[in-house]
Design brief:
heterodimer, A: 7-stranded mixed sheet, 2 helices, 13 strands, 11% helix, B: 4-stranded mixed sheet, 4 helices
Chain lengths: 149, 203
Amino acid sequence: MALRTLLFAVLFGITAPALAADAAGVVKRLQGTVTLERDGKTLPVALRTEVQVGDRIVTGVDGLVGITLADDTLLTAGQNSQLLINDFKFNTTTNEGSLLAMLVRGTLHVVTGLIAKNSPLQVEFRTPTLVLGVRGTEFIVDAGDGATP
Amino acid sequence: MKSILAGLALLLLCACAQLPPPVSGRVILLPGPDGRSSGELHVRDAAAADAPWQLLLDPYAQIERVGGVLRRSTSTAQSVQQRYGGLLARQPMRPRRYIVNFATGSTQLTPETAPLLEQVREALAEQPAGEVIVIGHTDRVGSMEANDKLSVARADAVRELLVAKGVPREQISVAGRGEREPLVRTADEVPEARNRRVEIKLR
């Protein structure tokens, strides 16, 4: 059994991973000032920076950032935005998983990926005022300045 | 003079009163690349957990939260471009898929599909932060175990060919799925050229 598990890991585990085990996604496009808040620290963001669950991505007045998640979900955050990756789980063999993200402020363009296709009830986006359940789709969500009048 | 000022003040007041209340949330469903509906969105007010979900189905269907109330309307391509054009222009690339095929039992690419690797290299070179995911497959001739190994060997072969073309090795990841994920379903031990393949995903 142990041998079989090991064999499975060898055969199916992606060798030379493009993503570290705990990475949810990778920064693919970048413009202006973009930072990332992780464990109370503010980190710089560059092309190929890995994004993890719990990260808060912050764009400045001139900042835009495009992130591809491991399941092919495309997230693009506009200027003056804050995006929190609350939850991301993805099984590369079954293409199932879950995704929860919160747009605290600003604008976000989303093209959903494999999770929305294979686990449609497991993809949710939120703003301070709205909750979005997603079934395989493309959309823009705008949280304004994050106020909730 | 006083009455003119009073009139102006009244006008200002009216103008203020007619300013729409602020939009505190907006969702716009966009068409897919083919221009048709890309799926569906269920939207509800975050402040009211028991509020009914509203369904967005058609391209440019929109929900705005105005003065604490959700309002449905329809946006347009022009309006989205005007307001969110910068956002749309900076999306990461959509993943692209390429399939190359192999001779029976071998890691030798078919001459028809081998030139695709050059296309992969060119497309990757255009991306500022591109990566390639290479996944090998087999048909059902041979044992499961042998096919698991063959599928990884095919993926490795594709990686080496890409590296030889100048693709940085660290941008390529490799996996094998054996005969478990056929493109075309067949009985066991049936040769099927379309299943002897490596799928290359560029993103």
